[in-house]
Amino acid sequence: MASSSISAICSFLCIIAALFLLLASSADSQLTPKFYARTCPNLEAVVRSAVAQAVAEEPRMAASILRLFFHDCFVNGCDGSILLDDTPTFTGEKNAFPNKNSARGFEVIDAIKSRVEASCAATVSCADILALAARDGVLGGPSWTVALGRRDSTTASQSTANNDLPSPSSSLSTLVSKFAAKGLSARDMTALSGAHTIGQTQCQFFRSRVYTETNIDPSFAALRRENCPSTGGDTNLAPLDAQSPNKFGAEYYKNLVGSRGLLHSDQELFNNGTQDALVKQYARNTDMFFKDFSAAMVKMGSIAPLIGTDGQIRSNCRQVNL
């Protein structure tokens, strides 16, 4: 075959490959930080102000909103589905096991939505508001550029929430596989777990850890048992990071190295497994953790967004537009 013919075939194949790559990345390319530059130019300022107010009133709210975003994105993508209330004819995700009586911050998202609607009505999705609020609550921690343009779902899936979200009792292999199913690497998973440097959790989620597990600092276990009886007190709270529960930093990883992870799933990241070396690196290098956390948040925020004409822009984050 003549060299010119071979060259032509190669060029054709390269064009086809480029087209496939373009189509595969088209969804991501429609998410852009400038999506509302003309239609709602004050959006980020409005969200940032409202989140700052909410966190000032209740510092724990930063962790709660961050968790909402994580639980939203892991269930059929970052589409605001977690915000939908149940109705007599609709079952949402709020009462899925990972969310029931523990997911919180919905009122804050409602308040932000009201402010945004006053500034630019029927323009900004609840999914995008949640993505921005998750970043803006991490006061004193890392920041990242939030790509925008998500639309809101008209459906939700309680069963998917039950199946896809990792639990506090997850093993390392389960954590790795559940994150991999969403296109997130083991490194992404370990960095995103660092969100537990802020916030609190309920006794029912760490009782087994502090009463029955052996890879735990004895004095730490004794301290946590003081507020978590062997029976009862399920909703009693303890900080995920006792050293600085309201400050975003690398103490979480230092705790893991010292066998002071509060949840079983936390300590799994440092338990003679594949993530031990990375945990040690994060414990020593806050800048590395911040950089990886920011990158992983951007990556998570691009999971299966509704774009273009899919979904809708809900006027009320709790219910589908009529």
UniProtKB/TrEMBL annotation:
It catalyses: 2 a phenolic donor + H2O2 = 2 a phenolic radical donor + 2 H2O. Residues 30-321 form the Plant heme peroxidase family profile domain. InterPro entries: Haem_peroxidase, Haem_peroxidase_sf, Peroxidase_pln, Peroxidases_AS, Peroxidases_heam-ligand_BS, Secretory_peroxidase. It is an enzyme of class 1 (oxidoreductase). Its cofactor is heme b; Ca(2+). The keyword Disulfide bond applies. PROSITE patterns: PEROXIDASE_1, PEROXIDASE_2, PEROXIDASE_4. Coiled coil: none annotated. GO terms for molecular function: peroxidase activity. Residues 1-29 form the signal peptide. Keywords: Calcium, Disulfide bond, Heme, Hydrogen peroxide, Iron, Metal-binding, Oxidoreductase, Peroxidase, Secreted, Signal. It is found in: Secreted. Gene3D superfamilies: 1.10.520.10, Peroxidase, domain 2. Its EC number is 1.11.1.7. Its main location: secreted. Binds 1 heme b (iron(II)-protoporphyrin IX) group per subunit. PANTHER family: PEROXIDASE, PEROXIDASE 72-RELATED. Removal of H(2)O(2), oxidation of toxic reductants, biosynthesis and degradation of lignin, suberization, auxin catabolism, response to environmental stresses such as wounding, pathogen attack and oxidative stress. Belongs to the peroxidase family. Classical plant (class III) peroxidase subfamily. Belongs to the peroxidase family. Ascorbate peroxidase subfamily. This is Peroxidase. It comes from Platanthera guangdongensis.
